[in-house]
Design goal:
Layout: E1 7-13, E2 16-22, H1 34-45, H2 47-60, H3 62-67, E3 73-82, E4 89-101, H4 103-170, H5 176-211, H6 237-247, H7 249-269, E5 275-285, E6 289-299, H8 307-373, H9 379-414, H10 419-428
Antiparallel strand pairs: 1-2, 3-4, 4-5, 5-6
């Protein structure tokens, strides 16, 4: 197991705070939980996540770069001159401090702040995506484990049928045609088992590739005691819309993009304004002594061929466009929320229906076994009934796992997925 350190920071943007928490193993005890450990391994080994961290660090340098426009410029000079006629040496030393007074620099700083805040949100989105990727790949492995267990059980069951039918053929009770039906079914199941083995191996490899860690032979599956009531219940679609509007990371990033576009427009709009500067200098010369000066200057462009006005218009239109993109993004997000909200509800209904189906197909198999013993059923009827039993069980297992994934998809679409969900999963998978 892997020990961890709790990491957290707060992302501030557009009058909202996004709490970004990398949950830690230390908060859970002396050892990391199963899903926390997998996530920590993914953090340390996933190139995309590591690249996102460095990208964030690079974007944070934008703010000190923008702040440099408000800092004074300090320069110095040392000169030694020799007259070729008189042969005299003149030494001069000078120091100059200049402070530019630029209105566009103020708005440029605002742009930089929004860009840095946007970079933080982008990194948080990468963080959420990695959480879901770990969970999603884990669930795929569990699905394939269920498929493997079910396939092996079905092969075993049909193999037993094959032995029984062979004995009955030897005794003259069953026909050779029935035996051939069972053999064909058994051989088909063996072929299917090879595909299941391949799918399981591939699913394990996908998770191992993400974590760079060899998995144990069998991963903990969803607890038999798990039920839909274990999920966080927010029934109203309207509530999910409101949560997404306040927490969805794409929406939050767009809000910053709108503000950034507006400040870009301001930068261009003040482009023709005069620029002032204040400078002080002190110089020493061996011939003239020490001199000091204070200068105030104003510079401006009175005509640039319409360049600044065109750039200002361009920035204004980009600002308008970003606002409309935000509206489109809101609609897209609401569609995604509706999709996963409906999928979650469907999963709950499927679990209930499949639970009843499991009972029904098992009862049907039991009844047909009795009739087969009495000679009222063919072996093909029994084989078909057994297929339904195994199929219904697999579908029930998958529906429960889909319920978990759909809940997490809904939370991710709303911007609510975080390290606490990893902790919750450890209670469900054991």
């Amino acid at each position: 197991m892997i020990l961890g350190v709790t990491k957290g920071y707060i992302l501030a943007s557009s009058n909202r705070f996004v709490v970004f928490i990398i949950a830690a193993a230390a908060s859970l005890g002396s050892h990391a939980s199963q899903f926390q450990e997998l996530f920590q391994l993914a953090q340390a080994n996933d190139p995309s996540y590591i690249a996102a961290q460095h990208t964030l660090n690079s974007k944070l340098e934008i703010i000190p770069q923008a702040n440099s426009a408000f800092m004074p410029e300090i320069s110095g000079s040392v000169n030694e001159n020799q007259s070729l006629n008189a042969g005299a040496n003149v030494h001069t030393y000078g120091v100059k401090v200049a402070l530019p007074l630029r209105l566009d620099a103020f708005y440029s700083l605002k742009v930089a702040e929004k860009m840095a805040a946007g970079a933080r949100i982008n990194f948080e989105k990468t963080h959420q995506d990695l959480i879901f990727s770990v969970i999603d790949r884990y669930v795929v492995v569990i699905k394939q484990q269920h498929q493997m267990s079910s396939s092996l059980a079905e092969v075993t069951a049909v193999e037993q049928r094959l032995k029984q039918t062979q004995q009955q053929v030897d005794l003259g009770i069953s026909s050779i045609i029935e035996l051939q039906d069972v053999k064909a079914n058994f051989q088909q199941l063996q072929v299917n088992l090879l595909q299941v083995q391949q799918d399981l191996s591939l699913a394990r490899a996908n998770l191992e590739n993400l974590t760079n860690q060899t998995l144990p032979p069998k991963l903990p599956a969803l607890a038999s005691s798990f039920n839909a009531a274990s999920l966080v219940a927010i029934d109203s679609l309207k509530n999910w819309f409101e949560l997404a509007q306040n927490n969805n990371l794409d929406i939050a990033h767009n809000k910053l993009a709108v503000q950034q576009a507006y400040h870009n427009y301001q930068v261009k709009d003040v482009g023709l304004y005069p620029r002032a500067s204040i400078s002080m200098s002190q110089n020493y010369s061996s011939s003239t002594g020490t001199t000091q000066s204070l200068a105030v200057g104003v510079t401006g462009t009175f005509f640039d061929g319409g360049l600044n006005q065109s750039q200002t218009n361009e920035a204004k239109e980009a600002w308008y466009a970003s606002q409309q993109q935000g509206q489109a993004l809101l609609k897209t997000t609401q569609q995604e929320i509706r999709r996963w909200h409906q999928a979650l509800d469907t999963s709950r209904q499927q679990i209930q229906a499949l639970a009843q189906l499991n009972k029904a197909v098992q009862a049907s198999l039991d009844g047909k076994n009795t009739e087969y013993t009495l000679g009222l059923r063919d072996i093909s009827d029994i084989l078909d009934a057994e297929k339904l039993v195994f199929s219904a069980q697999r579908n029930w297992d998958n529906a429960r796992l889909d319920l978990v994934l759909n809940q997490l998809r809904l939370k991710r679409a709303s911007g609510l997925l975080n390290g606490s969900d990893l902790t919750q999963l450890d209670q469900w998978f054991n």
